[in-house]
Amino acid sequence: MAMGSGKKLQGKIADPSLAFEGEKPYSWAYRNMPALVKTIESYGDARPLKGRTIAMCLHVTKETSVLAMGLKKLGASLYLSAANPLTTQDEIAAYLSSKGIKVFAWRGESSGEYFDCIRSILREKPDIVMDDGGDAHVTLHEEFPDNKIIGGTEETTTGVTRLKALSRDGRLGYPVIAVNNAYTKFLFDNRYGTGQSTFDGLLRATSLLMTGKKVVVSGYGWVGKGIAKRARGFDAHVIVTEVDPLKALEAHMDGFEVMPMSKASEIGDVFITATGQISVIRGEHLEMMKDGAILANAGHFDVEISVKYLEQNSTSKRSVRQFVEEYQLKNGKRLYLIGKGRIVNLVAAEGHPPEVMMMSFSNQLLSAVYISENYHNLENKVYDVPEKIDKRVAKNALEAIGISIDEVTEEQRRYASDWRV
């Protein structure tokens, strides 16, 4: 590991010599994220984040590198740690480090190292915290009570849920913009991005045919919808499990078979969790599964599949492929866990395609600028992304791919604001 010295920490990464290799995926992502590039370039020579220190706890991927370089161009000083111990692309960490960004991340961190890296970026007294999953926000509240944070952003459903709980307890110490709740985030990133990248990870890990298999998708939120839709595209037989009657009804109306996990566990071939909840697939489900069933998680944290049960109730465990571990239960059945139950699209693949991340990260960048300029007028609560920002991101995305749309006429404006027909 490379560790800097001096008053300001210089970062900790796997191998600085990978910087040259990291430039290639950065350039590829930059080429395929035109809306984010347009957003960055719209500021010209202005530096709206000059003097601001931003602590970023995000997946260290090629897409994140474009965001980080954009924030740097707008004047921010950046400290970056990973949002998951197994998702860092070491060549990207090296590339960003070579560009003056303080990176504390490497692939394969232990749980203790993971939180040490988060603490490292928080010790630099950031003005803004940009998080993915809530670990940085929660660590800040628990361990750095005297922070001078002016605001933060949050990328995921899981993180927003944690922050709202913190707010309900009256403990949220600064305003946070829920980037996850932007239409240009959850409608595209969660649905299309996760839908594709989940199967990218699953196929890289297993190299198996999905056609004809019974794929059980647990959770029918925006992520689950995307996964179920992609599974159907592979001609799989798709089963959805849910606890929300409205979402279950929607899944049924969308043409999917809906049943409880207790029944699905007996017939499924591939299981993909996407709920953000704990213990979705439990011991009683694992015991009923077919010999050879495949288990994958698309949620942020590794709590949806009971890995602990597998560890404690298996007679043997072995690695059969790079991201696949075989557990043989006491009943003789073998189950295959992908990526240790962590987020499959980033552990076994490269995460979301750049074309969807350009919208999520445009929201992140614009929200950081918004906080920097408006924090004095914000309360310590969770805010949605301002509608003006959401629409700006959508407009930039359309223009970047060469699509134009109509504009509302003055006659239509008058009609829409008048109660008389």
Overall geometric form: globular
Helix run count:
17
Rg value: 22 Å
Give the fraction of residues assigned to helices.
40-55%
CATH C-level class of the largest domain:
Alpha Beta
Major β-sheet, in short?
A: 9 strands, mixed
Here the CATH topology of the largest domain equals Rossmann fold
> Which architecture of the largest domain would the CATH scheme give at its second level?
3-Layer(aba) Sandwich
Q: How many E strands?
A: 17
Average predicted local confidence, pLDDT: 95
Within CATH, the superfamily of the largest domain carries the name: Adenosylhomocysteinase-like
Number of domains: 2
Low-confidence stretches: 3-7
**Structural classification:** alpha/beta
Strand order within the widest sheet?
A: 1-2-5-4-3-6-7-8-17
Strand content: 15-25%
User: How far is the N terminus from the C terminus?
Assistant: 70 Å
